[in-house]
Design a protein that fits this description.
The structure holds 2 protein chains of 2 kinds.
Chain A lengths: L1 H15 L35 E5 L1 E3 L2 E8 L2 E7 L6 E4 H4 L21 E10 L2 E11 L2 H7 L5 E3 L8 E5 L4 E5 L17 E6 L1 E3 L2 E8 L2 E7 L7 E3 H7 L3 E10 L5 E14 L2 E11 L2 H7 L5 E3 L1 H4 L3 E5 L4 E5 L5
Parallel strand pairs in A: 4-8, 5-7, 14-19, 15-18
Antiparallel strand pairs in A: 1-10, 2-3, 3-4, 3-6, 5-8, 6-7, 9-10, 9-20, 11-21, 12-13, 13-14, 13-17, 15-19, 16-17, 17-18, 20-21
Chain B lengths: L1 H12 L5 E4 L2 E7 L4 H10 L7 H5 L4 H5 L3 E5 L3 E7 L34 E2 L8 E3 L5 E6 L7 E5 L12 E2 L3 E6 L4 E9 L2 E3 L7 E3 L5 E7 L2 E5 L8 E5 L9 E2 L1 E2 L5 E7 L2 E9 L2 E3 L7 E3 L5 E7 L2 E7 L7 E5 L9 E2 L1 E3 L2 E7 L3 E9 L2 E3 L7 E4 L2 E8 L3 E6 L7 E5 L9 E2 L1 E3 L2 E6 L4 E9 L2 E3 L7 E2 L7 E6 L2
Antiparallel strand pairs in B: 1-2, 2-4, 3-4, 5-19, 6-7, 7-10, 8-11, 9-10, 11-12, 11-14, 13-14, 15-19, 16-17, 16-20, 18-19, 20-21, 20-23, 22-23, 24-28, 25-26, 25-29, 27-28, 29-30, 29-32, 31-32, 33-37, 34-35, 34-38, 36-37, 38-39, 38-41, 40-41
């Protein structure tokens, strides 16, 4: 009975995801066999004895760092809503076994993950994951620009059954178990009087929502791994003359390559019903990012935005909430 | 956002919106009548390099055009420079999770004190950090007896939020750790929450709306065994920029004044200010006369080292000079002792180059097989308090094997490694944090075959990675 349930569960999750089934669309099962075209490996449920997990976070520039343990290796991970799931630093996981998956391309495209692996355990404080797929890729750029050892990134899919609250003023991360309505139980609510409450789209493991830049609507991805806000240069024309250009500069990307960006400021960012002033943004090309997300995005909201208040991301209700704080 | 802060003041002086975006172009308006420095600021704002104001005034636009800019002359001696906005499309940032701003690798680790702190004295309201007679440092967090899990986190354990588990006692929680003398930052973690040491008045801004507590583990006590009737004795020295109002000597009874502190390794000059009058330390025979003619007492902290030169019995003058004293040539004189020239000294941990100057002639240390190339010169190599040994096994036929990496800015010839038996090795001092390095075997750069940690570089040849823990 349990076995049938598991197989059915796999089938339903396969049907519920986007690009997965395509490869197997034209397979013809041999008569007399059971096959699940489009079924794919689904990560098991995480487990943990807690109602609200309280985790101390460390800050390095605008990155949010917490400690976690992958198999036997313990160390720093970046809380990164721009990453789809667990991503491991190739320097420390070079010898991890390769998981044979035909669609290892996934979110990362051609210059993406070096390979996929299977991790036996992931522990974030009392939260435990049994058997996870993870991408292994070159994260040395983060280490070298911040001089901190980074074992990997914790992406959105890890929290898909929870709500997470990030308080950068007390440097705490909270992982909330949700009730059957997808809400944080009243007894466990830590913050009150939200200044903004808004639904978001959760597609391809990305958090997407519309926000208004000086009253012009744009689609943004919410990325806690982005230290600055970004906007695509093709939107710049639309946004001028309300953008104030500061300067042009060179940034260094992976492997020491450099590319030009333009720094700008704008006055009014409206998210949900709330207006934020004094916003900084980098104008660059988000074409490749769009490929990673599977859709075109006009911009990304990073630390310049989320650093202004305490925020909660409820992955079940697909709701983004911010709470009052002494600054802004 | 370092670039922001450095250019904003310049822009404020000049007409705003000189650099802007119009249609699909980046546009820079240059009024050639402005001061040269202002025009220069505008060029920097547009990140235009290699073009001088003189080029523009003379109408020499070839460099600009080569760089993709179109130049339009406008009325009233103004220029309009344009470049298509789609140059921004050359963006290798493909993964949303690697959006970092342009910052160069720091030598210091985040959350760690400045290595240059010269001295430190603790300041407690309630002292919660004690030195036990065993030499171990005990951190104490009072109360919190209902807590489930209490940790001590600090720069001595890389700000771990999982190690540093404290032991519960009947009045609080304790953690014992063996520390070297130095400056330490710390905090407690109680049931997942960061807590400061409320009893410690010494704090350091952590850069994120909060502060870390600061503790100095002492390594020296100044003692003045004189002036029993003095009303006030102050201590001042090179380590506190000679501030005469900062460090008070405490009366310890029987005409003795003391002050314990952490003092950074190296050579320090100091004096006592006794009721307004400067005195050198009567108990210290080492003195030094400074440029103003004052006689200061000198003390050396740290592992003593001795510069030695054998022979040269007929020399009149032997001096040692190195990267530790900016290669000054009149400062450190060796003196004759038996059939050697010697100078006892102390240096903070680090990697240095040095040479002897014998009667005006520069020479490397004949008794030292290690060399370091600096600014085109080959100098003798000295590592003080080396904390890591790089080893390369094999390569017996190689003529020379050298080491290069972030600790020496990828110095081209590299630092020589010594050959003993079947291994090449060199011991150096590494600052805490990440080190990337390679070996250079007869001119060929290789990653360390004995180290499984490596990362890719821009040449696709890989760099070996090593983390030095504190």
């Amino acid at each position: 009975m349990l076995r049938i349930y598991c197989l059915l569960f796999l089938l339903f999750t396969a049907l519920g995801t986007k690009a997965v089934g395509n490869k197997h669309k034209h397979m013809h099962p041999k008569p007399g066999t059971i096959s699940f075209p489009g079924a794919h490996y689904s990560d098991p449920e995480p487990s943990g004895e807690f109602a609200t997990l309280v985790i101390p976070i460390k800050r390095v520039s605008n990155l949010i760092i917490l400690e976690a343990k992958v198999d036997t290796v313990e160390g720093n991970f970046v809380l990164d809503t721009g990453a789809p799931y667990l991503v491991l630093n190739q320097t420390y996981f070079r010898d991890a076994p390769h998981y044979d998956d035909q669609e290892a391309g996934g979110i990362n495209g051609s210059a993406g993950a070096a390979f996929r692996t299977n991790v036996r355990n992931l522990d974030i404080a009392d939260l435990h994951y049994d058997r996870l797929l993870a991408d292994v890729t070159d994260l040395s750029a983060i280490e070298n620009s911040r001089n901190i050892k980074v074992l990997g990134l914790l992406g959105t899919k890890l929290f898909s059954k929870f709500a997470i609250t990030v308080d950068l003023f007390q440097n705490q991360l909270y992982i909330h178990k949700l009730d059957k309505n997808g809400e944080i139980p009243a007894a466990e609510e830590l913050y009150h009087e939200p200044i903004l409450k808004m639904p978001f789209y959760y597609a391809n493991n990305a958090i997407l929502f519309k926000a208004w830049v000086n009253d012009i609507p744009l689609w943004f991805a919410f990325d806690t791994g982005a230290e600055t806000n970004l906007v695509d240069y093709r939107q710049a024309k639309k946004l001028m003359p309300t953008l104030q250009i500061i300067n042009r500069s060179k940034l260094t990307g992976i492997g020491g390559s450099t590319f030009e960006v333009v720094y700008a400021k704008f006055d009014k960012l409206m998210v949900g019903e709330r207006v934020f002033t004094n916003n900084k943004v980098i104008i660059t090309s988000l074409e490749q990012m769009g490929k990673a997300y599977g859709r075109d995005i006009d911009g990304m909201l990073g630390a310049d935005f989320f650093g202004r208040a305490v925020f909660t991301i409820n992955f079940v209700k697909r709701e983004f909430v911010m709470y009052t704080n002494k600054t802004e | 956002m370092l670039v922001f802060c450095s250019t904003w003041p310049a822009l404020a002086q000049i007409r705003q919106n000189a650099f802007t975006i119009a249609d699909d172009q980046m546009v820079l308006y240059l009024d050639l009548k402005l001061k040269k420095t202002d025009i220069d600021s505008l060029l920097r704002i547009a990140d235009i390099k290699g073009v001088t104001v003189d080029n523009l005034l003379r109408g020499n636009f070839s460099l600009l055009q080569k760089d993709g800019w179109t130049i339009n002359r406008m009325a009233d001696n103004r220029l309009m420079l344009m470049k298509p906005l789609n140059e921004l499309a050359a963006n290798p940032q493909m993964r949303p999770f690697l959006i970092t701003s342009n910052m160069v690798m720091h030598n210091k680790q985040p959350g760690y004190p400045d290595e240059d702190v010269k001295f430190g004295i603790n300041n407690f309201l309630r002292q919660n950090v004690h030195e036990l007679s065993s030499g171990v440092t005990r951190f104490f967090l009072p109360a919190n007896l209902k807590a489930k899990r209490v940790l001590l986190s600090g720069n001595f354990n890389s700000w771990s939020t999982s190690k540093g588990v404290m032991l519960k006692t009947d009045s609080g929680w304790i953690y014992d750790i063996k520390l070297d003398a130095g400056e330490y930052l710390y905090k407690f973690v109680v049931n997942g929450r960061w807590i400061n040491d409320g009893g410690n008045l010494l704090k350091e801004d952590d850069g994120f709306e909060d502060h870390n507590s600061v503790y100095f583990k002492y390594n020296y006590t100044f003692r003045l065994n004189a002036f029993p009737k003095a009303a006030r004795v102050m201590l001042a020295g090179s380590f506190n920029s000679w501030n005469p109002n900062q460090i008070v000597m405490m009366p310890a009874g029987a005409g003795v004044w003391t002050r314990s502190m952490y003092l950074h390794e190296g050579s320090h000059a100091y004096r006592f200010l006794v009721d307004g009058k400067w005195n050198k330390d009567p108990a210290n025979p080492n003195t030094q006369t400074d440029a103003a003619g004052n006689i200061n007492s000198v003390l050396n902290i740290g592992e003593p080292l001795v510069f030695k030169l054998n022979g040269f019995a007929n020399a009149k003058n032997v001096i040692v000079s190195g990267s530790f004293n900016k290669w000054r040539t009149g400062e450190l004189h060796l003196y004759r002792s038996g059939n050697q020239w010697i100078l006892p000294y102390a240096l903070p941990a680090g990697n240095y180059g040095y040479k002897f100057i014998v009667d005006g002639r520069w020479m490397t240390d004949p008794d030292n097989q290690s060399y370091i190339d600096q600014d085109g010169q080959t100098n003798s190599f000295l590592a003080v308090k080396p904390n890591h040994t790089f080893i390369l096994k094999g390569y017996d036929r190689a003529k020379n094997v050298r080491l290069s990496g972030t600790f020496n800015d990828w110095n081209e010839p590299g630092w020589t490694m010594a050959h003993h038996g079947d291994t090449w090795s060199i011991s150096i001092y590494l600052i805490p944090g990440k080190t990337i390095y390679k070996f250079i075997v007869d001119g060929n750069w290789i990653i360390d075959p004995g180290n499984k940690l490596w990362e890719q570089n821009q040449f696709n040849t890989g760099n070996s990675v090593f983390w030095m823990e504190r």
